[in-house]
Design goal:
33% of the residues lie in helices and 10% in strands. The chain is of the alpha/beta class. It folds into two domains: 258 residues, Aspartate Aminotransferase, domain 2 (3-Layer(aba) Sandwich); 137 residues, Aspartate Aminotransferase, domain 1 (Alpha-Beta Complex), CATH 3.90.1150.
Length: 496
């Protein structure tokens, strides 16, 4: 069963059944309109209960996640989620809550919101947070809505442009466009950092702000952030911080202290909540003191009597509005709060340091096999530009390296060794980008094993590139036509 590849329809045998229902006593008492009736029997598979159980159990074992193996997905920060977080979120007193309950009956939950806001404010240097956004990109949009609202209510209607570095997180331009803002790209220098000389001519009275990720998507800390903050503030703009890469900064430096006015966090990236599947997620947004009036509603506040209540639009006339049905995904927020309390101040600081140490260790161990375009010290992640060309074959416009083996081939081959592939072909600054982020949760043994496999793959590319070109070899599915699968999926067994 290790390489189970059956469809449930392939297990079907006429007459088999996994259930027995009582006779329908209502049969013939009500007639379905002909237009709504099936013309033929529903072609469901006929299988026994044990067939069903084994089928779905085997399928579940094909899932790859942080609980099953190393997941070095750069920029997405796939790290282990401590099970105590799940235990806390499953406590009956939290699990049975409903968002429409009166505030007097959910004081404990509101206290979690309030304390979490204070915790994130202390960690980031911001003055207030909203937990309403349900994902990172949703947080980006919310932050930009706050930025736009700030300028509009000051009568500064000309500010319709947002500056985005070419090394920024990938969703930044899209979020700006959805918010109705025009994107202006600022270039990076050869060292991967924002080119301040290229930034200066872009600044003017039409700039609403700048979106930055620091460390940037290359895993490099923007050392001139102080000067950038002064320049943007000097022209009347605001600084937005994409918190996708907040992980290595924990306990070391705070975005608020760098000069940022608005930021979002991805709780799954920095504070170890579940990631993926389209949700549930959480992208809380923090702001500087002068921007608190523009935070979305509803918002938890604490009265002088210690009682928690919920502010609505009537209490916050300058609010940027409502961005979700209630106050975000409480269960995710609760998990992150448990993580913060469990680690405490000292251990949160160590999380960032271990993430940085692990990334630099891998980078230095592999730079003799993979092209390292920027050799400087990185933070939590770094980027290779494919395999090193050994000179035996010229590269083709940067698209194919040693003997024709590409970044995609490396990623596919990693699957054969039980490792999830890193992020590939992003950022777009490099043709054969391999973005690796080990996080702070992996052991030295796991990291060394990954390094050994990456060296092995590089050797295979030199000796027999066909091994990579045809990989993976021991997974249920090898190399589907991914473009066709995405655009023309076969969703029904009888259409195959």
């Amino acid at each position: 069963m290790k390489y189970y590849d059956k469809l449930v329809f392939e297990l079907s045998k006429p007459g088999r059944s996994g259930y027995s229902l009582p006779e329908n006593e209502m049969a013939g008492m009500w007639n379905m309109p002909a237009a709504l009736s099936r013309k033929s029997e529903l072609p469901l598979p006929q299988v026994s209960e044990v067939d069903v159980v084994r089928h779905y159990t085997n399928l579940s074992q094909m899932n790859f996640g942080v609980d099953t193996g190393f997941y070095p997905l750069g920029s997405c920060t796939m790290k282990y989620n401590p099970k105590i977080n799940e235990d806390v979120a499953a406590m009956p007193g939290f699990l049975g809550l409903h968002p429409l309950q009166p505030a007097s009956t959910v004081q404990g939950a509101l206290e979690v919101y309030y304390n979490m806001e204070k915790s994130l404010s202390a960690i980031t240097g911001m003055s207030g947070f909203t937990f309403d956004p349900c994902a990172g990109a949703h947080g980006e949009l919310t932050g930009l809505m706050i930025m736009r609202q700030y300028h509009l209510l000051r009568g500064d209607t000309k500010r319709t442009k947002v500056i985005v570095p070419d090394s920024a997180h990938g969703t930044n331009p899209a979020s700006a466009a959805v918010c109705g803002l025009d994107v202006v790209v600022v270039k990076s220098k050869a060292d991967g950092l924002v080119d301040v000389a290229d930034l200066k001519p872009l600044l003017g009275d039409d700039i609403a702000g700048i979106m930055m990720t620091n460390p940037n998507t290359l895993g490099l800390f923007e050392k001139e952030i102080g000067q950038i903050a002064d320049l943007v503030h000097g022209c009347g703009g605001l600084l937005y911080y994409d918190g996708a890469n907040m992980n290595p900064l924990l306990g070391v430096v705070r975005p608020g202290d760098m000069g940022f006015d608005i930021m979002h966090l991805n709780l799954h990236k920095t504070f170890s909540t579940p990631h993926g599947g389209g949700g549930p997620g959480s992208g809380p947004v923090g702001v500087a003191e002068r921007l608190i009036p523009y935070l979305p509603v509803p918002h938890v506040v604490k009265g002088e009597d210690g009682v928690f209540s919920i502010n609505t639009a009537k209490d916050c006339p300058e609010s940027a509005g409502q961005v979700s049905a209630f106050m975000g995904n409480f269960g995710v927020i609760l998990r992150a709060y448990a993580y913060i309390l469990m680690l405490g101040r000292q251990n949160l600081r160590m999380a960032g340091r271990f993430a940085t140490l692990s990334a630099n260790y891998i980078k230095e161990c592999l730079k003799d096999s993979y092209k390292l375009p920027i050799p400087s010290v990185c933070k939590h992640e770094f980027v290779f530009d494919g395999l090193i060309n050994d000179g035996s074959r010229p590269a083709s416009e940067g698209c194919e390296e040693i003997h024709g083996a590409t970044t995609l081939d490396v990623a596919k081959r990693l699957l054969d060794f039980g490792f999830h592939a890193p992020t590939i072909y992003f950022p777009l600054l490099f043709h054969q980008a391999i973005m690796i982020e080990p996080t702070e949760t992996e052991s030295l043994e796991t990291i060394d094993s990954f390094i050994d496999v990456m060296h092995k793959i590089a050797a295979e590319a030199a000796e027999d590139p066909s091994v990579l070109k045809t990989a993976p070899h021991n997974t249920p599915i090898s190399r589907p036509d991914e473009t066709r699968a995405a655009r023309q999926p076969i969703l029904k067994y009888w259409d195959a």
